């Protein structure tokens, strides 16, 4: 298991594409100013989209959502690490690094 370090503070004004170090995919982030949610997509390192933009919420395995294309023996999850964060809080660019961490959990340790 490893923590995927991502700084989403610039997301409110920019689209962010983040390489996951040592892995064969990238994460693609958008911020929707209308509903206030972050959306994440997954791209293979070839640029092919394997998961369209999906709302970023805790405790969902994003690699399992399109198992046909992402059966890599790993899980990608956002987990709340701040026990004082409100349970119903949205994940926002401001609270992502403070209250949540993204973990890559898998058979292969790199």
Question: Which helices and strands appear, and what pairs or packs with what?
Answer:
Blueprint: E1 2-4, E2 16-19, E3 25-31, E4 38-44, E5 49-55, E6 74-80, H1 96-99, E7 100-106
Antiparallel strand pairs: 1-7, 2-3, 3-4, 4-5, 6-7
What does this structure look like?
Strand 2 and strand 3 form a beta hairpin. The chain has a four-stranded antiparallel sheet, with no helix packed on it. The chain has a three-stranded antiparallel sheet with strand order 1-7-6. The chain is globular, with a radius of gyration of 13 Å. It has one domain (2-106). Helix content is 4%, strand content 38%. The chain is built from one helix and seven strands, in the order E-E-E-E-E-E-H-E. It starts with a strand and ends with a strand. With 110 residues, it is mainly beta.
Q: Could you write a compact summary of the structure shown?
A:
The chain has one helix at residues 96-99; strands spanning 2-4, 16-19, 25-31, 38-44, 49-55, 74-80, 100-106. With 110 residues, the protein is mainly beta. It has one domain (2-106).
Morphology: globular
Structural class: mainly beta
**Portion in strands:** 35-45%
Q: What gyration radius follows from the Cα positions, in whole Å? A: 13 Å
Q: How many structural domains are formed by the residues?
A: 1
Pfam family, one: Pam3_gp18
Domain Cyanophage baseplate Pam3 plug gp18: 3-105
Protein name: Cyanophage baseplate Pam3 plug gp18 domain-containing protein
InterPro entries: Pam3_gp18 (IPR054252)
């Amino acid at each position: 298991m490893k923590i995927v370090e991502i700084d989403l503070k610039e997301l409110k004004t920019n689209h962010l594409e983040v390489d996951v170090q040592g892995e064969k995919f990238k994460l693609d982030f958008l911020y929707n100013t209308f509903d206030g949610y972050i959306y994440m997509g997954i791209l293979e390192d070839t640029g092919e989209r394997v998961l369209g933009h999906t709302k970023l919420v805790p405790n969902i395995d994003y690699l399992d959502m399109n198992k046909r294309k992402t059966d890599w023996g790993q899980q990608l999850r956002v987990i709340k690490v701040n026990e004082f964060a409100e349970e119903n809080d949205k994940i926002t660019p401001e609270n992502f690094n403070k209250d949540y961490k993204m973990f890559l959990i898998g058979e292969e340790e790199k």
